[in-house]
Amino acid sequence: xxxxxxxxxxxxxxxxxxxxxxxxxxxxxxxxxxxxxxxxxxxxxxxxxxxxxxxxxxxxxxxxxxxxxxxxxxxxxxxxxxxxxxxxxxxxxxxxxxxxxxxxxxxxxx
Amino acid sequence: xxxxxxxxxxxxxxxxxxxxxxxxxxxxxxxxxxxxxxxxxxxxxxxxxxxxxxxxxxxxxxxxxxxxxxxxxxxxxxxxxxxxxxxxxxxxxxxxxxxxxxxxxxxxxxxxxx
Lengths: 110, 114
Hints:
The complex is a heterodimer of chains A (110) and B (114). Chain A starts with a strand and ends with a strand. Chain A has strands at 4-7, 10-14, 19-25, 32-38, 45-51, 56-59, 62-67, 72-77, 86-94, 97-100, 104-109. Chain A is built from no helices and eleven strands. In chain A, the strands form two sheets. In chain A, strands 2, 4, 5, 9, 10 and 11 form a six-stranded mixed beta sheet that branches. A five-stranded antiparallel beta sheet of chain A has the order 1-3-8-7-6, with no helix packed on it. Chain A is mostly beta strands. Helices cover 0% and strands 51% of the residues of chain B. The mean pLDDT of chain B is 93. Chain A binds chain B through residues 9, 30-32, 34, 36, 41-46, 49, 51, 89, 93, 96-98, 100-103, and chain B through 4, 31, 33, 40-43, 45, 48, 50, 58, 90, 92, 97-108.
């Protein structure tokens, strides 16, 4: 099955700086990679996803890049704001299910 | 626009008690999932239902049972609760069990077992 590793486990950034979270996956057949944001007391919410026929996707201040050769994908948050503080999860498909990374706690300090 | 609804939001049980966590989705999705989330462990799949009438074990099924009551509802049952089952439980749904769709999550049930 799929194995997803996510780094770092915690990330502290100054407001206005950029944040980058990286994930690697093991199954070369995987072709869909979502990112979720989980705020305190809430369930994970999809924020962006990418399919394997593109290398990059942007949505305002967030972007995801995919390197299929190296089997890794990354979430980039630019101009971070306090409301970006949350836990972020990457995921990759595995036989009709999703295999999640362990999560990254992002703290944006003023 | 409710999406995925979980009940109850909080519950405290004594060891050995039983209870059922309820989940319903209004998006006409075929697949539904139950996860548990523990500190530092991410999301671990307990059971899932690829379509109405089918259920399968996930990564951590021991101590749990599930019922796919109809297309909308998927319940998780703890027959004899143990302290190790203290966790936050999330239900999710997905349109079809293919490899190109996101899952949509409820806001969780916080369960403490004393």
